[in-house]
Design a protein that fits this description.
Number of helices: 19
Largest sheet: 4 strands, mixed
Structural class: mainly alpha
CATH topology of the largest domain: Growth Hormone, Chain: A
CATH architecture of the largest domain: Up-down Bundle
Number of strands: 6
Strand content: 5-15%
Radius of gyration: 24 Å
CATH superfamily of the largest domain: MFS general substrate transporter like domains
């Protein structure tokens, strides 16, 4: 049994008020809790990012459809817009807001992975979520305090982006600590639907308030993510070693397997929990020293005399870059996220302009993209698991994204059903590769280094590079959309093709391997 002092206070209280929970396998209990908590965490992160894409339609809108108050000067065609987004360069300013968040996110993401490897993931994640909620809340306060200064919005966006970087490295590292490599494609594919569900809930919540009080479109998501962060502080157990379990995929004798079960009372090794060493958070992994090893999944770990713990320090940034596949997948993700985030931040505005829908209707009409994205994430994970070829899986989906973009541009806004069908297909094709690279691929690459902890660092490198693309996409879209939305579609088609090209070497190697196994 793990020392009570190493467990979150919520887990300790839960054990006292619900003693029967100890009858459930430790592995099952904690795996389930980590799966659910990290799912809620990143769903909340995306929920809190979504409001700006919805509120854009109110900050800069078509005033000709509205009836003004008697004292309003209607000679100004943008009399109903929120200053400073009432000029001809409104789309550029809104794109600049997107990019200030995303550039900050991209820059701090590289640092975030480095920090996450060196401190406790529970504290890191909980604190990051609370501060993310605060800055989301501050954006909404602009409505109540009648703030129109662009520098205020930029300040909030920059710090919100920095705080949001705490999410991805931490949740992927926590999941990687609990789930073995053999099942990551499917599990991570299902788990990654948190992104799409967060986007959907974020659009629905923001859309519910946007017409009469856009401040609440930010304040409510801000309160939600901060509350979920506190929940993680109370209950998240990110390391199996904290509860007396060996880490998954740890080396045991000549093979690699996950060992579950609890230590006998009084036999908890001192190094089973994560401990700070020389200022960094270093993990200890279990390794059997006896040749008589019980390979049952539920077999308890043997006592101190038979367990040798190997200190695993955090991997350096340059060493992580040298891992085969990290650079190719990072560059591919740059363009994948460019496409995905262009839709995330501009789809409601595109629908508002092209269909004449209200701000609330545009928010709701943009949700099929994320529904399709969730299906695409699961599908990509299943195919990658079955074939062992994540590169080829991404290439296949990226290839068909281009005709999907053409079809949506030509047919997507004809009526409600055409929007639903073509937007869902497009979401499936765009988000499938994005989800696969940021989850299962990143976790697998992070575990290639057997002598160091590399999960959070590799995840931060891959997602950080992708986040630079995510910053570039919405910014360029804001500029080129002023000359027609068709320019935005050309931009994302070219980006999709470049993303595919970066994976050709990996795809060719996977194809040769598949042919040899047939």
């Amino acid at each position: 049994m793990a020392s009570p002092h190493s467990l979150p206070i919520g887990v300790i209280i839960l054990r006292k008020i619900w003693p029967s929970c100890d009858s459930i396998s430790q592995t099952t209990r904690y795996k389930t809790s980590v799966l659910v908590l990290t799912y809620l965490a990143y769903m909340s992160y995306h929920l809190s990012r979504r409001p700006l894409s919805v509120v854009k339609t109110i900050l800069n809108r078509n005033c000709s459809q509205l009836i003004p108050e008697p004292d309003v000067d209607t000679s100004d065609p943008c009399w109903c817009c929120w200053k400073p987004f009432d000029k001809d360069n409104a789309n550029s300013l809104l794109g600049f807001l997107d990019s200030s968040f995303l550039i900050s996110y991209a820059i701090f993401m590289f640092m975030s992975g480095f920090i996450a490897e060196r401190c406790h993931l529970r504290y890191f994640l909980a604190l990051g979520m609370v501060f993310s909620g605060i800055f989301t809340y501050l954006f909404g306060l602009a409505f109540y305090f009648d703030i129109h200064n662009i520098y205020y919005f930029l300040f909030v966006q920059i710090f919100a982006g920095a705080c949001q970087t705490t999410g991805w490295p931490a949740v992927v590292a926590a999941m990687g600590n609990w789930f073995p490599k053999s099942s990551r494609g499917l599990i991570f594919g299902l788990w990654n639907s948190h992104t799409n569900l967060g986007n959907i809930f974020g659009a629905l919540i923001a859309g519910a308030f946007v017409e009469y009080n856009w401040g609440l479109s930010f304040i409510v998501p801000g309160v939600i993510i901060a509350s979920v962060g506190f929940l993680h502080f109370l209950f998240l157990v990110p390391y199996p070693e904290e509860v007396g379990l060996a880490p998954v995929d740890s080396e045991i004798d000549s093979g690699t397997r996950a060992v579950s079960g609890s230590l006998e009372d009084g036999q908890q090794p001192r190094s089973s929990s994560s401990e700070p060493s020389n200022g960094s958070h270093r993990r200890k992994t279990a390794k059997r020293s006896s040749s008589n090893t019980d390979t049952s999944e539920e077999a308890p770990l043997i006592d101190n005399s038979a367990v040798e713990f190997v200190d695993k320090g955090a991997v350096s940034f340059l060493s992580a870059l040298k891992i085969p596949g990290v650079i190719e997948f990072s560059l591919s993700l740059f363009f994948c996220k460019l496409v995905s985030y262009t839709f995330l931040y501009w789809l409601p505005k595109y629908l508002d302009d092209s269909t004449g829908s209200s701000s609330m209707e545009s928010a709701f009409l943009s949700t099929p993209f994320d529904i399709g994205g969730a299906i695409g994430a699961v599908g990509a994970g299943i195919v990658a698991d079955k074939t062992g070829a994540p590169g080829l899986t991404c290439i296949f989906m990226l290839f068909f994204t281009i005709p999907g973009l053409i079809a949506y541009e030509l047919l997507g806004t004809i009526n409600y059903w055409s929007n639903l069908i073509f937007q869902s297909i497009l979401g499936l094709l765009v988000n499938g590769p994005y989800a696969l690279i940021t989850t299962a691929v990143a976790a697998d690459l992070g575990n290639k280094v057997t002598t160091s902890n590399a999960l959070a660092t590799v995840t931060a490198i891959i997602d950080g590079m992708g986040s630079i693309g995510a910053a570039v996409g919405p910014f360029i879209a804001g500029i080129v959309s002023q000359n027609g939305w068709n320019n935005v579609f050309y931009m994302v088609m070219i980006s999709d093709l470049i993303s595919l090209c970066f994976l050709l070497r990996i795809g060719a190697a996977e194809w040769r391997k598949l042919r040899n196994t047939l």
